[in-house]
Design a protein that fits this description.
It is a single chain. The chain contains 17 helices and 15 strands. The protein is of the alpha+beta class and about 525 residues long. The protein folds into five domains: about 60 residues; about 50 residues, no CATH class; about 180 residues, Nucleotidyltransferase, domain 5, CATH 3.30.420.10; about 70 residues, no CATH class; about 80 residues, no CATH class. The strands form four sheets. Strands 1, 2, 3, 4, 5 and 8 form a six-stranded mixed beta sheet that branches. The protein has a four-stranded antiparallel beta sheet with strand order 9-12-13-14, with no helix packed on it. Strands 10-11-15 form a three-stranded mixed beta sheet, with no helix packed on it. Strand 12 and strand 13 form a beta hairpin. The protein is elongated and about 130 Å long.
Length: about 525
């Protein structure tokens, strides 16, 4: 309850309306209304009796000022609250009340007083006030969870799927889509597809406190920190993210009811159908969804689709000209070849960042690389296949990284110890790329393992690899490994034969004696 006595005390001390509202944590309009009504009843706030309790002050300013006037039609507050719970807005109910008052030949309260009477009735009877939703303002989001599945066509196993539901409380219009997980990519894709389905987006989006929406709650308060990527997504669409408060289920009560509707009217019938792909399941889900959206309300005029098209769609924010590009962000360390490895591919960065930790942000088409202080240092088109190298000449001006011993000359010097064949192979591995630094990883990986092979095996492996134009680490090591195994097998066979010969000679000598 508002502390009316404290408002009067602070006002007498000279505090402004805004200052009082800030100190007491209430709206400035509330403070202004209390002060004006006290002046109307007692003439001046200094004349308010000091012995009155908070409740007595409230009774005086809200009852004396607005005593029941028989010339006004008194609203049926209980009926109004029930109809509001069925989906009617407070504005619609006030219009009906005005119409009834005119029909009875009585005056009608203005909408402000009408709302006060209904709210006071709800408070005095300890009733929860239905939320008064406005068209196009709010959208609510929630996951259904593992309430459905598809059948893997190969293993025949049940694969659980998750349903994302986004609803518009004013009309009840909603969108549902199935995903394999509840990760950020699925979360944003569900939002994007829902807004495309609505052909617009709400001004405010109300998610749960899930990890994809909220990083963590701010310590000591109920305020949540919005996930960075989700905040960027909302900014792209011009929306404001308003997560539900902890332990406040009514903050997204509408989508909770919509989730139950999806479970009962969409997922339950689909549970009898065997789907082998996500696309097939979503096709059937959307067919059921459109049927439910066209179904007339039982206690409200029209259907979800009709109310949405007539009243809410035009109030939504327009979609941006280009769709939001979701991204994946990870950390990586720049290798000595001035490249980082990301998603089975290599991307170059300037040589001055070698051995530093960088941040990699990848969309479906681009890879951008930043320092830990978020300074952009490199940008590449995303690799099209595994282990592709994306490099730019300006990242290594001298043609190499400048690392001591980490150059063609250094590698060739190491290869000379294994013969001319190995030198030729190293040159071939470096020459096959546009920039020789792109071959450094391969050459280093091969050279580092040569000590485990016999020198003759290395020479033969290099000769075979050269003749077959095999310059990959895996290819060279496969050849060398097979040759090494053959050599060991031959040595083992010779040793067995020698042992047998020795045994035979010893046996023959014994018989001769």
């Amino acid at each position: 309850m508002v502390d009316y006595r404290k408002i009067l005390q602070l006002r007498e001390q000279g505090a402004s309306v805004n200052a009082i509202a800030h100190l007491l944590g209430c709206k400035w309009k509330t403070v202004d209304r209390v002060l004006s009504r006290c002046e109307s009843v007692w003439g001046d706030i200094a004349e308010v009796p000091k012995n009155l309790s908070n409740e007595q002050i409230a009774d005086n300013i809200f009852t004396n000022r607005y005593s029941v006037d028989q010339s006004f039609l008194q609203p049926d507050c209980e009926k109004i609250l029930n109809r509001q719970r069925q989906g009617k807005s407070r504005n619609e109910l006030w219009v009906e009340y005005v119409r009834q008052a005119k029909a009875c030949g009585k005056n009608a309260y203005k909408i402000t007083r009408f709302n006060e009477l209904v709210s006071e009735y709800a408070r005095s009877n300890q009733l929860s006030l239905p939320l008064n939703h406005q068209p196009g303002i709010e959208g609510q989001v929630d996951w259904v969870g593992e309430k459905a599945h598809i059948i893997d066509i190969d293993s025949k196993e049940r694969v659980p799927i998750h349903i994302l539901v986004i609803s518009l409380p004013y009309s009840g219009y909603f969108y549902a889509e199935a995903f394999l997980d509840e990760k950020m990519h699925s979360w944003l894709a569900g939002h994007r597809n829902a807004f495309n389905f609505f052909e617009g987006c709400p001004s405010i989006i109300v998610p749960d406190n899930c990890r994809t929406a909220v990083t963590r709650a701010r310590r000591g308060t109920e305020e949540a920190i919005i996930n960075t990527q989700y905040a960027e997504f909302a900014e792209h669409y011009g929306m404001f993210v308003k997560p539900t408060r902890p332990r406040r289920p009514r903050d997204k009560a509408h989508v909770e009811r919509t989730v139950q509707l999806v479970e009962n009217d969409l997922l339950r019938p689909l549970s009898q159908i065997r789907c082998h792909s996500l696309a097939e399941f979503n096709r059937l889900l959307h067919a059921k969804m459109k049927t439910v959206l066209q179904r007339p309300y039982s206690k409200r005029t029209g259907s979800r689709f009709q109310i949405f098209m007539d009243e809410e769609q035009k109030m939504l924010l327009p979609l941006p000209l280009c769709e939001y590009q979701s991204y994946v962000e990870k950390k990586a360390v720049v290798s000595r070849d001035s490249h980082i490895q990301f998603d089975c591919a290599y991307y170059s960065v300037p040589v001055e960042h070698i051995k530093q930790t960088v941040i990699v942000r990848a969309t479906e088409t681009m890879v951008t690389i930043y320092t830990e202080k978020r300074t952009l240092i490199a940008e590449h088109y995303r690799a099209l296949h595994k282990w592709q190298r994306r490099s730019k000449e300006e990242h290594f001006p001298g043609g190499n990284t400048g690392e001591k011993g980490y150059s063609r000359a250094g590698f060739i010097e190491r290869a000379k110890a294994y013969g001319a064949e190995m030198v030729d192979w190293c040159n071939g591995a470096l020459d096959r790329f546009e920039f020789e630094v792109q071959g450094y990883r391969t050459v280093v990986a091969v050279l580092s393992k040569l000590s485990s092979y016999h020198p003759e095996v290395v020479k033969e492996a290099a000769r075979i690899a050269l003749s077959s134009s095999i310059f990959s680490t895996k290819g060279f090591n496969t050849i060398a490994g097979n040759l090494q195994a053959e050599r060991l097998e031959n040595l083992s066979s010779k040793q067995v034969q020698m042992n047998l010969n020795s045994l035979y000679c010893s046996h023959a000598q014994g018989e001769a004696e």
